Write a sequence for this structure.
């Protein structure tokens, strides 16, 4: 995943927001030996989910992670598939860690920077959009806040000393976004004085920090229960269905390729690729389930890059799109429609081949073949048609 891909609006290029990800803490309140940012959640280290979330944001980059070099191997496993800047070593406090991250970004001269906790894996584009609007509107700094809904007490020795007026109180989240140069100066000026977030550093340095609505879903993992909740949310799935259809005409030749299997035949199927209508229908169904348009959009007709390529390459691209979306194939059902050749003997090989291309158990793949009783182009022996239905399990929160 490449951060900071140029994002051009109708009005011109957006200003880039660099990111500092604070990941050098010990996660003592979570317990469990391994710091929380490296704990596996829904199959990946928590930090990896946070980087994934940042990668889904337009105009964010470069990303600078601050970590403890002691955890070098865990760090490397967490950033696999992402392209953050080389990590910098954190300090004894979050504030010291962030300062090191900010210093490391100096050579990139970003306009804006947002500081984000590795422990918040659910950063959403809407929230970052609100921060950007505030900065573009002239704010020196801006943070997301949530209203305090519970009554707030100050306690001493397990006894209430005071009930605070919650009006005007707010809970601060990350990412917190600032004009880069201003925040760097503020952090340098405050080095040695202890603050728990960047807004406090900015305030101490005399900056005015604006607020925008936070996102209740943007939870911070602090306790072991939070890890369980993050796991539940990252695992939550919805089922999506896609369908596909394709047909190709017969031409002079001696074999056809259907569902990735070569079948000797007195004719071949005409087309730019191997004209595998089974795999083409399958890929269209996969794209359909993901809301990703159709074959033509991804593999334009006449594009030399695709000419002569086996259709298995198209499946590989669709599988790549699924991976990027964390989609899992539940099942694929393909129907091939032709009078000739006879396909029943080839069904087991097709099933095995399609399952291998999709990287799933063959039990999730079904191949059917039918003639049309002599009706239509297939019945007249003019070509072969394929249709497919695919169900995918995808993350429930599609952004
Ligand atoms: N952090 C950091 N450097 C530190 C301390 C904290 O980069 N010296 C990071 C943490 O990794 C975390 C974020 O700052 O992503 C917010 O801090 P917190 O939630 O307090 O995490 P920890 O300090 O790791 O946890 P704990 O306080 O429970 O030990
Ligand atoms: Mg801490």
């Amino acid at each position: 995943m490449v951060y900071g891909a140029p994002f051009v609006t109708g009005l011109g290029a957006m200003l880039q927001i660099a990111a500092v990800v604070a990941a050098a803490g010990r996660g003592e309140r979570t317990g469990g030996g391994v710091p929380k940012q490296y704990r596996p959640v829904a199959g990946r280290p928590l930090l990896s989910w946070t980087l994934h979330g940042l990668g889904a944001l337009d105009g964010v980059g470069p990303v600078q992670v601050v970590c403890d070099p002691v955890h070098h191997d865990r760090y490397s496993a967490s950033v696999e598939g992402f392209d953050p800047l080389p990590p910098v070593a954190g300090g004894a406090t979050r504030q010291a860690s962030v300062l090191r991250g900010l210093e490391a970004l100096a050579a990139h001269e970003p306009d804006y920077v947002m500081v984000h906790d590795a422990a918040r894996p659910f950063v959403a584009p809407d929230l970052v959009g609100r921060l950007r609007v505030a900065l573009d509107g002239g704010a020196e700094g801006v943070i997301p806040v949530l209203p305090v809904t519970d009554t707030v007490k100050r306690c001493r020795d397990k006894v209430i000393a005071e009930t605070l007026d919650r009006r005007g109180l707010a809970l601060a989240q990350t990412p917190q976004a600032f004009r880069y140069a201003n925040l760097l100066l503020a952090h340098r000026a405050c080095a040695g004085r202890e603050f728990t977030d960047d807004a406090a550093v900015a305030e101490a340095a005399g900056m005015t920090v604006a607020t925008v609505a936070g996102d209740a879903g943007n939870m911070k993992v602090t306790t072991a229960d939070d890890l369980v909740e993050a796991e539940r949310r990252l695992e939550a799935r919805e089922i999506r269905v896609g369908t596909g259809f394709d047909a190709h005409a017969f031409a002079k030749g001696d074999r056809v390729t259907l569902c990735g299997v070569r079948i000797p035949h007195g004719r071949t199927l005409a087309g730019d690729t191997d004209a595998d209508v089974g795999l083409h229908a399958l890929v269209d169904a996969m794209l359909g389930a993901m809301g990703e348009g159709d074959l033509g959009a991804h593999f334009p007709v006449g594009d030399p890059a695709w000419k002569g390529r086996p259709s298995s390459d198209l499946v590989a691209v669709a599988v790549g799109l699924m991976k990027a979306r964390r989609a899992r194939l539940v099942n694929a059902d393909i129907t091939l429609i032709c009078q000739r050749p006879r396909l029943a003997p080839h069904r087991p090989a097709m099933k095995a081949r399609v399952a291998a291309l999709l990287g799933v158990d063959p039990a999730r793949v079904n191949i059917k073949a039918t003639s049309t009783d002599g009706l239509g182009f297939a019945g007249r022996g003019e070509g072969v048609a394929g249709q497919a239905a695919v169900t995918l399990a995808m993350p429930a929160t599609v952004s």
The CA atoms of residues 198 and 341 lie 69 Å apart. The longest strand covers residues 237-252. The chain has two domains: 7-234, 237-395.
